[in-house]
Specification:
This protein is an alpha+beta fold. It has four helices and 21 strands.
Length: 409
Amino acid sequence: MKKALVLLAIACLLGFLGFKVNSKVKEVKAKSESNSQKRGATSVAVEVAPVRRATVREIGRFTGSLIPRSSFVVAPKIAGRLERLTVDTGDSVANGQLVAELEDEEYIQQVQQARAELAVANASVAECKSALEVSNKELSRIQTLRDKKMASESELDETRSRQIAADAKYKVALAEVNRREAALKAAEVRLSYARIHVSWPDADGSRVVGERFVDEGEMLRANDPIVSVLDNSIMTALLDVIERDYSKIRIGQTAKVTTDAHSNMEFKGTVVRIAPLLRETSRQAQIQVEIPNVDNLLKPGMFVRSEIEFDRHEDVLVVPVASVVRREGLYGVFAADREASQASFVPVSIGITEADLAEIREPALSGYVITLGQHLLEDGASISLPNERDSNVSAPSRSEVGSATGGRS
């Protein structure tokens, strides 16, 4: 009996201890869940910026190189030794100016020979003409005698044959004169080729020597380059345009051009040509922008950067680009309710993006949007803002008062 009572006491003690342990575990678990809920309700520190109105532009930025409006290479049409070069790199040249002379003694001799051969041909013409006149008179005399029955038919035929031969010889002599005259003209043209001039269709204005390729005394073949001549009065920028921007380019658009050589200056140009195709390897098309080179600061071969304005929207709603996020396939911003310390996700339609500003087409926002910390937020999350005295957030204008709201799409 005593043993049974001891066992009963031990069982009661163990049950009491188990109850205490179970209660303690439940208390710890409840406290843990409470702390977890408190942690979940902790506010997210964020930074905000006001929604405002501004002008935004859609700008295409391109790079390329400068080429002169026109350029050509001066080369001889005949072979010879370069005897004199009258221009050098950087020299200004006028239309029709003499720039080089080749050794011309051989060509002078060819002209003199052609003149002598022409003189011989002219003498032959005179001789043939005289013989033809004699032959004509003889034919007339024999014809008269034949009419009087004083000459035979065979004598008349023989005389007529000599007259025809003399006439043919005279015509051959005239043709030879024409051939010799042509040979003389050809020789004179070749002689003129020894004096090399520059010329271009536009009679006004001067051009500049871009590069010299030879020195005096060199033996040149026909078409060997001597100098290059450039027209730098108007420069052409060759720019590569990607496929996305190709459809936005129009003839007559204004382009702003800058160079590394004159980084503090801007040059204005105009789109004058658009390539009708895109290169398959790069998916780019080439456009040409003409730039007046009034002060001659731009040079061929310079690397240039160009900006072309495609569109402009004035006085539209804008937010910082940093505030735009993507949630569940939608672009939007987190609007900050400063009084309730709460963030709400507002889907938006984005228009033009320029630098750090994004145009909001719809809905009509106002107030503030979150620009930092939004990646930690969900719709309806609690937020905390820095003290007004320590923040850079400026008070919104009258049109910006209130929390940012808008209909959801």
